[in-house]
Structures are given as structure tokens and as C-alpha cells.
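B., you asked whether I could sanity-check this one before it goes into the benchmark set. Here's the sequence:
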Amino acid sequence: MDSDRPAAARTETEKSPMELFSSITIHGLANSPDGQPVPYTLERGTSFPPQLFIYASKAQFEWPFDMSPQTVPSSGMHLELELSDFIERGRCGHVYEVRVIGVSARPDLPTSPPNFPLPPLCIKLAEPNRLRCIAREAWFYEKLGEGSVQGTAVPRGFGFYTAQCALSQVIPWRERNWEYHDEVAWVRRFLQRRGYSDESALRTLPPDSPVWTQLDDAEVDRHDWLKLEPEEDREDFADDEKGSNMNSIWKHWAWKICDPQDIGIIVMEKLGPGIEGNCHNGKLDKEQGKEVRAVLHDVLSAKIFHYYDVRPEQFVEATTSEICPRHGYAHKWRVLDFDRCNALSSDPLNLRRAAEAIERIPDNTTRFYFSA
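And here's what the prediction gave me:
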């Protein structure tokens, strides 16, 4: 099979979306240090593997796949984009439409229009203080891209990209509707209570200053939406033998207000409007409820459990009509936002209990959010 051949030996039309690109340049994302608009280049980043999860009591840990992050493609192309309209804000980042300018073999070469099909694209730009969440979501895109779920039940993902620059350089971060502004205000109050004028004082503090420890201790869980994941193994969570979770570069990553800042972006297929606008009186009808459950079952077929944080606003209209191999027809909706999903043990009891939980998601509801 073509998919069994190394990525470098396959053409762009034979590669999966996650294998296509090794780097991206975005126009309109950032300024130079002196405030001038500049194209900004990001390289493929490493995703953040979760621990394996047991949903059903008495189930056993059975690893359904290699938990390691996907190897960054060394032979991928370079994608040049232009930032366009704002689409939506979320818990971990904001989504923007992007225009494809072109592709090239390397970032230092001129781009030209791609000679392979690309759907309309958008980017999810991480909140500065929620980058770990985007790195986790990228891991789920990688796993969902290994089968037939991407493009039929979830959007196509085109990779996770990272870079560093000053907080003030990223143009969208200046807008007041970003959650991290609340964190900045909180840090400033923290420092002012200790006699510092503002966060610029952090640049002069020595690494062993007790302020760093106090700040880290005080900020723990304030900016990290992965806080429910245990730091050590317990009965219902376990790392793999390689320690893919524990040894990840993201395991102990924490946002700091001082520069340089880490930037994280997921490039994905741009889809249509959300299901909420198609609901009667804001509630799902019987057919919509059936479709929501069908899409979640497709995700579950990849041993990924999208349940504890699933909400109506995460279902958006498909813009293509690929046939779902599990159901034999094209789904109208795609599900988004995977940072709080679980990678499930493939113990049959575990999968059966998870499937039963999805079937309990009701019709005729404005919410199907499960907090426990």
C-alpha cells in the first residue's frame, strides 16, 4: 500500500495531510521588534502525548497504538499563508481564516501555487498561556490522521507549528478578547504587591530568585487546562513503557509572562457554520442528535474518547462530502477541539462502556457537557 511507503517516497497527493508540510510562513501574524509587519516562519513542533485512560472499572490497560508523538516530517514542503478574518475564539486559542499564497520545497525558496489539492484552511493560534493544550490537541490530530476519521468525522489537520518571539510582536495577541490579558493583569498585581513596577522587572531577576518559585506556585493551574491529567500513574491513567507522556518536552512546560514567548499554531481545514445555528430553539432535534453520536462513535473507533468536554458548539458543518466508511454515508457535521479528549485502552470492556456513554448523549438538549 502507498501509505506503507516512507513519506519521502510518496507524492503530495499520496501523503496524508499531516505529512505534507515541515514549515509555514504567515503574513500578518507578527511584527519585527521595531514594529514593522514581517512574514513570520514557524517550524513543525512536537505534540504532547496523553496518558492512556481506562473509562470502565475492571478494564485493563491495552495500548491501541504507539503513544509517541509523530516524527516531524523532514521532507515536507513549506506553506506560505496570509492571515485573514477572525472566525472564533475558544478556551485554548483563536481561529483565523488564512489564504494560501503558495508552497515551496524550503522556506528560503519562492513559492508557487500548489499542484495538489488543498481545501480552504484556517489556523488555531494558541493563547500564550495555553500552548500545552494546543500541543495536546495536535497529538490527537496525528492519531486521527492515521485512519479514515480525518476528513469524514473531524477536520483535516495539516500540522502543529511553533516559534518564539516577543509578546508584543504577535499582532492578534494585542486584542483584548484573549484570556491571557487577565493573566498579565494578575501577574502585574502579584509583582506590585512585592515592590516591582511591572513585568519588565522579571527580565532582571536572577534564575534563583524566590520570586520565580512564588510566581510558579501561585500560578499553578491558573493557565493550564490539562490540570485534570495526573502527574503520576494511577488506577485509571498510565504512561507507556517509553514514558511518552512523562518525557515529553511539554510535560512541565509553564507559561511565563516575560519574553521570549512560545507561539503555537495548528493548521486545519476550514469548515462551515456551527450546528447551533441549525438547531430549533437552540436544541438538537432527533436527526441532529443521531449524527452527533455517529461522529463521536467514529472518533471512538480510533480509540479516542471525546466525551468529558464535548459541547454543541464543537460541531461544525462539513464543506466536503467524503463517505464515512463506518456508516456508509457522508456526515453533515465534523467535531472539533480535542485537547481534553482521552486516549482509550483498547480493552473491549473499556470500548464498550465508552460507546454506551456516547449513546446516552440526549437529543432535545442545549448542552451535553459532562464534567465527570
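One thing to flag: The first helix runs from residue 131 to 144. Otherwise nothing jumped out at me.
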